[in-house]
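Q: Hi! First time asking for a complex rather than a single chain. Here are the components, and I think there are two in total. Is that enough to go on?
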Amino acid sequence: MSDVAVDIRELTRRFGALTAVSSLTLRISRGEVFGLLGPNGSGKTTTIRMLCGLLEPTAGTALVAGIDIRTAPERVKMQIGYMSQRFGLYDDLTVAENLAFYGGIYGLTGTERTDRLSGVVRFLGLGDRLTQLAGHLSGGWKQRLALGCALLHRPPVLFLDEPTAGVDPAARRNFWQAIHELAHGGTTVLVTTHYMDEAERCDRLAMMSLGHLIAVGTPSDVARQVGGQTLEEAFIILQERDER
Amino acid sequence: MTRFWPMFRKEFIQMRRDRLTLGVMIGIPVVQLLMFGYAIQTDVRHIPTVVLDESRTPASRDLIAAFENTGSFRIIDHVDGRPDFDAAIARGRAQAGIIVPPAYARDLGRGLTATVQVVVDASDPLSSQSALGAAAGVGQVKNLTILAAAAGRASLPLDVRVRPRYNPGLRSPNYIVPGLVGVILTMTLVLITAMAIVRERERGTLEQLIVTPITKTELMLGKIAPYIGVGIVQMTAVLTLGRFVFDVPLSGSLVLLYAVSLIFVIASLSFGLFISTLVRNQQQAMQLSFFFVMPNILLSGFMFPRQAMPAVFQWFSVLLPLTHYLQVLRGILLKGAGLEAIWPQVLVLVAFAIGLITLAVRRFHKTLD
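A: Yes, that's all I need. Here is the structure of the assembled complex.
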């Protein structure tokens, strides 16, 4: 695999008359924590869903871990981990059962399965919660469990769609520590967020607005390109422009 | 198929944990069986009957006793005039009425044609038909006895002997209970799997599941497999109660019965899955399931004979899996039929099962739109 983990080429998605993502071109390097930033309706979620194979692109394509999402969407699925905005695991299964289920679905068996499961449990500190029903967990623990299930097959690329929405600050900080640890290990992370402090922690950012790419670069580069002193100012400028 | 087992295990745990649904699935067959078994009797007997006897002779009393002895009529009242007679039937106090005119005994004695009038409330066709049949029977028997006596014969010239084979007592439970097995399986299993995929879609768990490498076939088979067990338990419950509470015979091979039922259960579950791929939410799934279940109950021959239906509906009923399964059930349970007799139905059911699951897998897409 080359150093480009995600290679997005003129990716476009239309829903009827609405163009949610308009010929987006982006390259994300291996081991990078890359943030997608933008107001609601800017096309972040649609972009991630296309990269995961959940939505078919209307035009353009992308290579994820070197595999074309248009021609081989099922092969992409072994290479990626995904966390949706909404908690996507089973409330009526325990933490351990959810993990075991996704371990099985990713084709893990025998000692490999046991090792991966205990590795993820240790990494995310889920040890004391294994017998709890997922539905009874707090927001922060749910996020950890979701991340754990997305990591079991050691995907080279992680897609996180607003992973920390509605989670308390301490849990958010822990979560980001885990993200950076994964990136140090070579995992590429594409994350969308609404929180400016989280955006600041990304290696690079792409700012989107109404389906278009507005700026790409380090957090301070992006702020400058949009015309704000800080990222937050840049974000507000964009949002006000969108609403007009 | 390596991902089938984790899917199966997950569905099984969820099914076991949902105590209410599980209880309903096991409870429904028992309640329905008792309800249908006791309440539904297609042979109408003891019809409340009012009598206007204007003859008041031993001959007229003899005639009325003959009506009562058929078991079809239960005399509830003797009235004195036509207005009272009409009122009893109009108000629904009686569903049939017998009028014996004043000249009855006299005409009979003189060898003239004596008339008797039987009035039936035909707003309920099933019970009125039973009354009509019984009344005609009484007339015929009376006529024959009188004619035979007049001709000086000890026996009648013709004796037609009818032998109702496979259900000699013409008992309703023998007809209803085997059918009920099929109806209950259709009702509960279609609904259960119709909910299966939309429920995951509504709860947001489908999104997480379809970004994994699981194949559509693994997903579908994993979803239906635990409910095959539920179907078999339901069937066993109905058959056991049918055998010991309603004395329904089990003439044929149990192994064959279970084998064919397995195929029918898979076909029903697959149909539910197919519905699940057509709808956007659980409410639609429920409506569509009922839309499918109703014709199954009405047209499959569960309660109303298919021979009585117009040709179009007879053809349509061939498209319902239950129609074929009912023939298998009645064949094995009542007639002791073996595979050599029921193989055409078995083939049709196999085709349904394979066709429906293929259709469901084809219809399902691992995308959100």
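A: Strands of chain A lie at 4-15, 18-29, 33-37, 59-64, 67-68, 80-83, 157-161, 188-193, 204-209, 212-217. Let me know if you'd like any chain examined more closely.
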